[in-house]
Amino acid sequence: MSLSIRQIHPVFVGEVSGVDIARPLTPDEVAAIEAGMDRYAVLVFRDQKITDEQQMAFSENFGPLEDARGGNITKPEDKRLQTGMNDVSNLGRDGQPLARDSRVRLFNLGNMLWHSDSSFRPIPAKYSLLSARVVNPTGGNTEFADMRAAYDTLDAGTKAQIEDLICEHSLMYSRGSLGLLDYSEEERTMFRPVRQRLVRTHPVTGRKSLYLSSHAGAILGMPMPEARILLKDLNEHATRPKFVYVHQWRVWDLVVWDNRQMMHRVRRYDESQPRDMRRTTVAGHAATTAQV
Ligand code: OGA
Ligand code: MN
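^ inputs. structure came back:
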């Protein structure tokens, strides 16, 4: 059976069938998936029983993996997964749910805020690929918002106002909004703010999108409260239900999204029970501030 993609939301999101991602892909399959990503921005693959090695190999069809350093507060000796895998589970090395007061758990709750992966890096991520290994019994849906539709539906005045604005993004802004304000000197250096355009253009399709993220906490040349209000307004607009797809996970789903044109968040779930989700991240090519 050959690869096909069926749109499953009125605005975006495709479901892919006819491919086994545990095996090496043909160049035609890779091209079809990339074209699907450019068009639908989120692709859902069902029943993909993969190992971490197979997930990394599949991801590398779309570019080199991002270096995960600097993106979390988990110490190397506490890591559950090998280099190349981002652990977005609620589990510790012992395979048990993290304690309620675990700093790692509290930091990871930031994934419940709307964001784009790695917008806190100078060159932010291209794709994220998330594989469901253990699904939580209550909640834990992941939601995606189409930032192209969000941009397209802004009024002309707002588009003109924001066209050339540059935001500062940092993990300290997203976590700070949750009340996590204490960081070591080392963490402060690691999390120093980076600059991102507020309106970005997709390198393949040329479509513009709003580049929002919970990590965005300031706008250059704008008083802070004014910047925060503008960002809040834009976020509210961008995450209206008609632009949002809600993914209800089944075990062995793999969902791929394009961080250059999407935001996402996970919803609350029963943290006394495991939720084992494993992400690979394909590195981006260029800084958004380098865009012409
Ligand atoms: C991520 C993320 C959401 C989830 O992997 O980048 O935000 O559903 N995860 O766990
Ligand atoms: Mn994320």
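Residues 4-282 form a domain with the Double-stranded beta-helix fold (CATH 3.60.130.10). The pocket of manganese (II) ion (ligand 2) is lined by residues 111, 115, 117, 264 (CB under 6 Å).
thumbs up if we can close this ticket
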